[in-house]
């Protein structure tokens, strides 16, 4: 009997908490039951109105919103493969991704619909797009509106996906190289959720604030976790310190994820007071270690706050290691690490010949676990190379200490990190 598909976590939660407030998105409010009805309408519309089969890709280019969450959940119900597009893309990059993925339907908001139109000019006769669906309102190029699409659909359930069906095609960033599409199966995403739940302290969520961009792998816990671990979801369209603190204060947010730069911007904002963040119980961060001054500031103002650092990448559904709250002691050498492997994940370092190195020796960080991607889309040689020897090769250099903590020291690949995103 299959288990590693999202409906098996989502449906029991919806049945139990249908009448509870689930979504807070500006002036928009809905219960989880209302959210689920919209998701079911969307799955019907994707298949019957837009012609999207379960293995077909549909793209989203938009700021954070309840509609974006509905699109994610529709994919995880089995309606199609979601292709969340990076908001930083130039038209030429966007054109490459759309043609490479053979995306026929794009959902965009008014801010980014003009970028889709510019990409279509770049593609010319190779443009595979059949429909652009506008999220919200705006005088921008589109074929139909999102709300009209849902209004014309039936609130039915689509066929449940299989564990090995693809569900996400997420492209890495590119500078000198072309972006690579990371194809992820249902089982990998659910195992990633399970790995986190089995590693972290109590996973009960009150209210989760989605402020990291929803095209990014770092947002996956917010996208899937709130509706699996008992919470509501609060949105900000894009990060802005005062807006984030206002949402936390007004909606008594208990959980969120930020990069240290975002945390620092909140703590140094003129409107910051500890009371504005007092409802937070757990703060997950990643992309870089927490600066000691920022950590001291946080623990002084919010001594009961649980801090968790995550390290991972798109290819691992976002999680490889976690640095837990008990390791966030000022002055501890473990703060220079990225923590220990999450439950169910094996991490070693290897030399150039693929030999596993002893503890303490620097080599390439290599990973095994069920949360890893299936492949790079249309790139069999790159897939074979990154999985050589039966391990996923991260491109990061580091070492594992005697207590099992992973310390990163450099990059093996010619790659930079910008805003927490890998750029090749």
Write a structural description.
This protein is α/β, with parallel strands linked by helices. Helices cover 29% and strands 24% of the residues. The protein is built from twelve helices and 23 strands. It has helices spanning 7-17, 32-48, 66-77, 91-101, 113-123, 146-151, 186-199, 220-225, 241-251, 260-267, 292-301, 380-386, and strands at residues 21-25, 28-31, 57-61, 81-84, 105-109, 131-135, 144-145, 166-171, 181-185, 207-210, 232-235, 255-258, 282-286, 306-311, 321-323, 340-341, 346-350, 363-368, 375-376, 392-400, 406-411, 416-418, 421-423. The strands form five sheets. Strands 2-1-11-10-12-13-14-15-16 form a nine-stranded mixed beta sheet. A five-stranded parallel beta sheet has the order 4-3-5-6-7. The protein has a four-stranded antiparallel beta sheet with strand order 17-18-20-21, with no helix packed on it. Helix 8 (220-225) links the parallel strand 10 and strand 11. Helix 2 (32-48) packs across helix 3 and helix 4 crosses helix 5. The longest helix is centred in the first third of the chain and has 17 residues, at 32-48. The model is unreliable at 414-424 (pLDDT under 50).
């Amino acid at each position: 009997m299959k288990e590693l598909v999202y409906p098996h976590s989502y449906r029991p939660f919806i049945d139990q908490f249908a009448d509870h407030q689930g979504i807070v998105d500006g002036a928009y409010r809905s219960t989880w039951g209302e959210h689920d009805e919209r998701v079911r309408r969307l799955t019907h519309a994707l298949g019957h109105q837009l012609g999207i089969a379960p293995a077909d890709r549909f793209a989203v280019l938009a700021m954070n919103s309840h509609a974006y969450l509905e699109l994610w959940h529709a994919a995880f119900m089995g309606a199609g493969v979601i292709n969340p597009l990076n908001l930083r893309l130039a038209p030429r990059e966007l054109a490459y991704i759309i043609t490479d993925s053979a995306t026929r339907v794009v959902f965009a908001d008014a801010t980014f619909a003009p970028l889709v139109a510019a990409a279509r000019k770049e593609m010319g006769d190779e443009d595979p797009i059949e429909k652009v669906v506008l999220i919200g309102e705006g005088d921008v190029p589109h074929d139909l509106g999102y709300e009209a699409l849902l209004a014309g659909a039936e609130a039915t359930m689509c066929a449940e996906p299989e564990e090995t069906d693809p569900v996400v095609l997420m492209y890495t960033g590119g500078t000198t190289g072309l972006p690579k599409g990371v194809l992820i199966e249902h089982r990998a995403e659910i195992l990633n959720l399970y790995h986190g739940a089995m590693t972290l302290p109590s996973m009960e969520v009150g209210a989760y604030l989605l402020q990291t961009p929803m095209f990014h792998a770092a947002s996956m816990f917010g996208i899937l976790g709130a509706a699996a671990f008992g919470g509501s979801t609060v949105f900000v369209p894009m990060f802005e310190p005062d807006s984030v603190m206002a949402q936390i204060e007004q909606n008594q947010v208990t959980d969120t994820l930020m990069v240290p730069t975002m945390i620092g911007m909140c703590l140094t904002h003129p409107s910051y007071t500890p009371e504005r963040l007092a409802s937070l119980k757990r703060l997950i961060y990643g992309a870089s270690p927490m600066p000691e001054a920022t950590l001291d500031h946080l623990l002084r103002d919010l001594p009961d706050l649980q801090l968790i650092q995550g390290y991972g990448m798109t290819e691992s559904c976002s999680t490889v290691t976690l640095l837990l709250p008990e390791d966030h002691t000022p002055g501890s050498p473990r703060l220079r690490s990225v923590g220990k492997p999450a439950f169910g994940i094996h991490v070693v370092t290897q030399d150039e010949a693929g030999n596993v190195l002893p503890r303490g020796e620097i080599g390439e960080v290599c990973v095994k676990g069920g949360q890893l991607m299936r492949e790079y889309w249309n790139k069999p040689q790159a897939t074979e190379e990154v999985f050589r020897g039966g391990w996923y090769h991260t491109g990061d250099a580091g070492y594992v200490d005697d207590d099992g903590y992973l310390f990163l020291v450099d990059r093996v690949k010619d790659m930079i990190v910008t805003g927490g995103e890998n750029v090749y």
